[in-house]
Write the structure tokens for this entry.
Amino acid sequence: MRQIWISCGNRRNGNQTGFQPAVAHNLLGWSNFVDGRIHKKYVKIEEDYTISRPSNQQRSRKSSAKWALGLVDMIIRIAPRQWLCRNEKLHYKQHFGAESPRKYQRIMAQIKHLHNHTDPDDLLPADQYLLADNLDTVASWTTTRRPIWTAEFEASIAARDLINLIHQNRKGDTSG
């Protein structure tokens, strides 16, 4: 972290507020930081900041201990997400255009829901062929074709809903 601090144009000055936690952080190490262990200098700097604020602004701020708990909580939540994202990019993309199992399951669940819960009359007549597609066939399509099918399906439903709404409005205008 100290190298990052220096590379950003700051000097090795022990009196600078930001340099102190950078040096302390290096002593703890990255693994401890990611595990939610922060140096007490972070808490001290936050406490000094809170005390230096005018009294009317101090009351709206959290205590330094609550601030530290919030920081640790955020750090702990970030690490698993980064790991999942890393694993997904590294292990599941075997070739260009491949999708992770999670993305495949998500799109297939959406496709199954649309296919199983849509009445043919909910689609425009020109798009009713979409219901004729077998789910096994849809599952074997490429990663780009499945989302296109889904978008066409949803667009047809939205178009049918809009047409129905226009017809209802016209009926309401003529009956009054």
Remarks:
- The chain has nine helices and no strands.
